[in-house]
């Protein structure tokens, strides 16, 4: 034990099971689907009442608008509390049914939208560019989202889905000319229109996941959602899945999810872990051209650096095992990318996570050294109590504000101590806490651009990040 957090003595478990087949339903038969619907129906009244009770907590914007009186909130709280009390027998029955059903559930659902052209053969004399997007969208049930000063999850999910999928699908990675220039960096108001892969975190709300899946299917034919092992796992009750969602323009050959066994405190209620996929990008010289993409979300509390350290070690181990299991003789590997909300930054006093072996194997284009980011990099975690203020209330205003050091100082979360409290001696103006990462494994690519996106102003407390990677055929391995 380290502090009050239990860390496994050996972070490397037994070899995992083979990668799961990609199936539309997470359940193996219709009977289990029906039982799952029945269990959720029995749990629905208590969930509705609890969610609405928590949703009475006002955001800073609601406090300013005074949209509901204290008397009205008190009356509503009584109604929701009474509903919760009355529904307790149904909740117990629903849990007794839900738990064994989850034991038979596969760890993700796969959506394939037909009608897209297959990837063209790849001439290895030409380079291709691929764009990756990672974003923590904070799509929890509205009541839980209030703890991040957010709410209205259905409305936010609809907006996010529309912004992520405005363009028609692209049949192949863009051809690029050789370039030898510094990394182009942008602070943009819109998501890149040429995004090939979308990796989202905190898509915990079922309705939000459905909304995203349906909308993204028009642009990204391959979507993995409902990712994670719910129910009793490692002697702990997982009420939420991992919150991960992955969308791809390219076919998925294999996918696998691993749940972290050491989640602690409030994070223990979510099935956080690593989702890793193998992507078919085309063919060259009669062989497959593939890419590997991992998406994860680590332990959140600032004081749990030891937990995150163990999770990073597990993630590296699982990535290696997955690639060894899926590779075929003659495969051309175009890229190996890992992204997600790692819940630590490179500006605070957190040497344990900042010096993890991960950064020896994968390159972080925004990082210069442990504890030091590139001068152009900015934080991705906003000061959640100020996200509704006028200077950051639209994507355009947020972009302009964060373009200035004073704006970053006021509206981005600053360096913290190990306890999570603000660091009183942090130099200012700061770049902000960059907790959202897009890493790639050299030498399979060159950075063509990094973009920090302000599209989700007032809709999330994180800035999405995009990475454009030029794949160099000469560095692909057979």
From TrEMBL:
Signal peptide: none
Gene3D superfamilies with a match to the protein in the record: Endonuclease/exonuclease/phosphatase
Record GO terms (molecular function): sphingomyelin phosphodiesterase activity
UniProt pathway: Lipid metabolism; sphingolipid metabolism; Sphingolipid metabolism
This protein's GO CC annotations: cytoplasm; membrane
EC number(s) reported in the record: 3.1.4.12
Keywords: Lipid metabolism, Membrane, Sphingolipid metabolism, Transmembrane, Transmembrane helix
Highest rank taxon of the organism: Eukaryota
BP GO terms, sorted: sphingomyelin metabolic process
Transmembrane segment boundaries: 75-99
Keyword Membrane recorded: yes
Domain Endonuclease/exonuclease/phosphatase: 153-462
A Pfam cross-reference name: Exo_endo_phos
Family: Belongs to the neutral sphingomyelinase family.
This protein's name: sphingomyelin phosphodiesterase
Organism (species): Strix occidentalis caurina
């Amino acid at each position: 034990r380290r502090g009050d957090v239990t860390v496994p003595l050996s972070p490397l478990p037994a070899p995992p099971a083979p990668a799961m087949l990609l199936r539309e339903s997470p359940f193996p038969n219709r009977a289990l689907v029906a039982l799952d619907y029945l269990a959720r129906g029995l749990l629905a009244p208590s969930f509705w009442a609890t969610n609405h009770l928590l949703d009475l907590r006002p955001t800073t914007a609601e406090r300013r608008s005074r949209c509901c009186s204290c008397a009205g909130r008190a009356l509503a709280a009584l109604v929701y509390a009474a509903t919760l009390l009355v529904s307790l027998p149904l909740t117990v029955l629903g849990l007794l049914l839900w738990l064994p059903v989850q034991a038979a559930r596969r760890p993700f659902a796969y959506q394939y939208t037909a009608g897209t052209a297959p990837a063209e053969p790849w001439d290895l004399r030409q380079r291709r560019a691929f764009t990756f997007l990672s974003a923590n969208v904070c799509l929890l049930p509205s009541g839980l989202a209030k703890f991040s000063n957010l709410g209205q999850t259905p409305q936010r999910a609809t907006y996010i889905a529309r912004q992520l999928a405005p363009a028609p699908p692209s049949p192949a990675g863009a051809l690029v000319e050789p370039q030898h220039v510094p990394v182009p960096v942008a602070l943009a108001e819109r998501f890149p229109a040429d995004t090939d892969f979308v990796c989202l975190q905190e898509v915990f709300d079922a309705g939000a996941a459905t909304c995203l899946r349906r909308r993204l299917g028009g642009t990204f034919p391959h979507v993995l959602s409902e990712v994670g092992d719910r129910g009793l796992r490692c002697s702990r009750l997982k009420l939420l899945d991992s919150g991960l969602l992955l969308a791809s323009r390219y076919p998925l050959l294999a996918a696998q999810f691993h749940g972290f066994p050491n989640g602690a405190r409030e994070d223990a209620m979510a099935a956080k872990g690593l989702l890793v996929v193998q992507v078919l990008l085309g063919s060259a010289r009669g062989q497959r051209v593939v890419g590997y993409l991992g998406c994860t979300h680590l332990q959140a509390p600032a004081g749990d650096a030891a937990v995150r350290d163990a999770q990073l070690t597990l993630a590296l181990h699982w990535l290696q095992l997955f690639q060894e299991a899926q590779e075929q003789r003659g495969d051309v590997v175009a890229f190996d990318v890992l992204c997600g909300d790692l819940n630590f930054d490179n500006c605070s006093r957190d040497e344990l996570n900042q010096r993890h072996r991960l950064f020896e194997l994968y390159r972080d284009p925004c990082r210069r050294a442990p504890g030091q980011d590139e001068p152009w990099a900015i934080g991705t975690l906003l000061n959640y109590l100020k996200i509704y203020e006028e200077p950051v209330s639209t994507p355009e205003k947020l972009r302009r504000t964060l373009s200035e050091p004073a704006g970053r100082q006021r509206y981005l979360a600053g360096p913290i101590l190990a306890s999570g409290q603000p660091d009183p001696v942090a130099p200012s103006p700061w770049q902000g806490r960059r907790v959202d990462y897009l890493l790639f494994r050299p030498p399979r690519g060159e950075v063509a651009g990094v973009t920090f996106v302000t599209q989700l102003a007032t809709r999330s407390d994180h800035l999405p990040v995009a990475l454009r990677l030029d794949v160099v055929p000469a560095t692909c391995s057979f």
